[in-house]
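Quick one: structure tokens for this chain, please?
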Amino acid sequence: MRIGTIQQIYSADMKTFINITIPSTLINKLTNSDFNNWNTWAISIANQYGFDTIGYQAGYAIFFGKYGFNYNSVVYQYDRFGIYTGPACLIFGNYGINHVYYKPPIITTKLVDKGCWNDTVPRTIQPAWLDLRISTPQQMYSADMTSIIYITVPSNLVSKLLTADDLNNLNTWALLIATQFGFDTIGYQAGWALFFGKYGVTYNNIIYKYDRYTIYTGSCGLFGLGMVSHVFNVQQISIPTTTSSTISLTSSVTSISLTTILSSSGFIDKGYWQDDSTGIIERMRYSMSSPGNYSAYNYQTGRIASIVITSTLSSNLTEQNFTNWLSWAVNTAISGGYNTIGFRKTGTFYNILFGNYNKISYDMVAIMKYDRIGAVSNPGSLYGGDMICHVFYKPV
């Protein structure tokens, strides 16, 4: 990040090298106020070359990678060694500590309950399992059982093994893991163990199939019994394409008041709320100055939300045009299944966030609540301020 000449890194599949040159406008610009500029450029590089992971380290290094890719028997995962829990890693990381940005895969599958199945040694799904009571990285076999992968149970899910809601939350996370690593079977056992497997894979002359033995005819509960797995199968689903309404920027739309927009939509202006790096609405932000069609999987509705920022909107970020932005945002939130909207402005960078109150973030890191930290005074802009969101919420 301090060099302006061509630098070589591996391609996303690690089969070739690619040449990347850092723009002269970014070289050695490594203060907190420069970070948004770096992220905008880094995201464009990641999208161009098929990376899904960006990591800043040591205050001057940037990594691009593909999560879960196997190279020379090493599976590359940003979370392979666990989350850093010490002092702040700083915005550009620290030595041996990555500040990571990750784009999760779009989920086009669902989990189908296959009931309870008997197990014994040798196991039916795979030889290794996760202990859902542990929050540190655990080793498992990859889907084809040719390598070792590391999986960490999110801290908010550890030992949550009692209710149907606990199962739904774990299943949402487990489906993401299955998609990342190519598993098609998961099984809960003994009230605390979770297996991931690939149906029909052969390892050491054993064919791994959840139904290799017999079905269990009793009830195994939500999280299985000793040597009885509660099995879910990953199946493809047809997710309807959701097209956000695009507001035509005519004089009649411009004249619509905030009150009219909110009263017709059910959204309420909740004022201004403090944000932080964990997030209060959602951890995925969209640049309002970058036109494009962004696809976001909404875990709460189980479908793709299409977030379409037009060039007409992105070119007009004045206070006078806020009603057009809000009208568009309300339509986008309704069509995408979101009940919370946040506008956030940092210097010349304008971001919009869509989320669902009291639901887990898209990357399974934290529960999102716009009022988690506290209300603040108006920062002087309808678009919010530095770590301040102007929030609109639709009660459910």
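The helical segments are 35-49, 164-181, 251-254, 258-265, 311-314, 322-336.
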